[in-house]
Queue: 3 jobs
Job 1
Amino acid sequence: MNNNFIIVGRLTRDIDFKYTNNNKPVAKANIAVQNGKDDTSFIETTIFGKMAETTYIYCKKGDLIGVSGIIKNHNWEDKNGSKHYDYTFLANKVTFLQTKNERTKTESAKESNEDIFADFGNNIEIDLNDNDLLD
């Protein structure tokens, strides 16, 4: 059974980026996903490797991105015996649907009738294993 997710939404802030203790790039993206007219979910997604670096460089607050990946659950018990449950959304593919630069091009293209979808896409993929999550 697969545990996959696919979301499309806008970045609520610029990408948080750092390197792990093992010098692996990791980025956190907070994405607003519209569920309906008056319902929005805010999903923090973790991105690793070259994909994390590229997303950090090219994507900014307000950009529209598509992300697919897996959901990892974390269950633990605190010192008082209370059980806690948490989920991490781990990206294995990020698609840049509309960056600020592309929004500017789109506005210009509307005025000049250019093909606004000429550069559509920019797919980046990465393989991820559990050892990358331990840093």
Job 2
Amino acid sequence: MTPARLGVVIPARDEEQLLPRCLVSVAAAAAIVEETGTHVSVVLVLDSCTDGSTAAAAGTAAELGLELHLLETSAGNVGSARAEGVAYALELNAEWIANTDADTVVPGNWLRTQTELAEAGYGLVLGTVVPDARDLRSGHLALWQDRHVLAEGHPYIHGANLGFSARAYRAGGGFLPGVSHEDVELVERIKAAGLSWVATDWIRAVTSGRRDGRAPDGFSSYLQTLLN
């Protein structure tokens, strides 16, 4: 069954500069599924922000006509921030939760493909992520590409491009507090619970290529290790 209500959860910490482009991409993806009657609610979790992230997000959402719910927390870790966001989305009766990060741009087919896969019976969708080439020095993108095969059935897990049903999330025990690997741990528990899942490159997202990221051992940390 195609989910009638979708939740998009985005944790953010001091992302005033990158949040607008993230929300623009989410709004474009939402517009496609909303044409078919699916309702999309975006939940932005502002974790320990000290910059203008709140104003930047609210202003962008107003310009786009995007249904945006702003949550503020001082949890100080992405696991708790994601958990708070999903809990709120579930309170809004979201049947499917799509997850990304504030420094990420999702493709236009991002939500449509996830709803189609949900209709096909999958409870978990793992998307791919590539670094923004504009943030990398010459040759670094090629080095990254040499070590990653982006294809159907890929082995990667990214909180910046992850979707699951409400049932799968509950079966996996939800996101747990932690500064990193909360996405990998949840996926492992969902798989162990026996939910059908798929790893696809059809919804490839582009994330910041910075190497001073917000989560230790996250994507930016990996880039720093690989490229330095």
Job 3
Amino acid sequence: MITRIITAIVMLIAVLPIIIFSHTVILPVAISIIAFVSVIEMMKCTGCSHDLWFSIPAALISAVLPIGGWFIKDKKQFILLALVVFYLFFLFILSATVLKRGKQKIVDSCFNFAAVVYVMVGFTSVVLIRCLDMGAYLYLMVFVASCVTDIFAYFTGRLFGRHKLIVEVSPKKTVEGAIGGVVFCSLSFVIYGLCIGRIFDTTPNYIVLALAGIILSVISQFGDLIASLVKRQFGIKDFGKILPGHGGFLDRFDSSIAIAPVMLIFCSFPEFFTLFG
């Protein structure tokens, strides 16, 4: 626990400059590095990192995509370009699977593709949210949701947990912990909106904030459970060791990459986009 806390403090200190200068290229570069490492962690987990025909394109795309999302001003054009890249990548790995003459199952190739794209889209969505007009406030909500849900689900579960959530996937998680995570995440969004409103003289929509907190907290917990299921099925404890006490980058951001694309979708609705209007 001490190691975990020390690592968390060091991470917070390292992240502060990125938050302060998030309006500069520092943010997408940092996200690209994290995405690159996370994709490698996922490929090592699924056992496809040794396949250079898959791993090299996957690593390159993961490193380029967040930076591309920052510099390409027309976001619709960027999303269309990303879809084309994903399609070509998918076609390429399926063609490579065919040329292996049955030495690799096509279902494995499809899963590997889905796994790395899931990671890429999650991290790239963070950059796209930051590029929005109110992105300086909105993108942080991705991490507020994941951190608050994780922390309070843990403590609520420890204090009040009686009923196991999904033992086969994550033995320690409880129904009470999951509910506590949702409640406190929703409350944290309202408090976050109150602070932003006071500091920057804006008018938050507290009802939308509370509802968004509930939805994103649920998704956060599913993101955590999905990562746990992947690790369990591939027989590993953590995706990596780069963060002592936490595992790898993917272990730390498994909830965030599930939340970010949904948050980006929310931001396409006027009611949410004007959250701090």
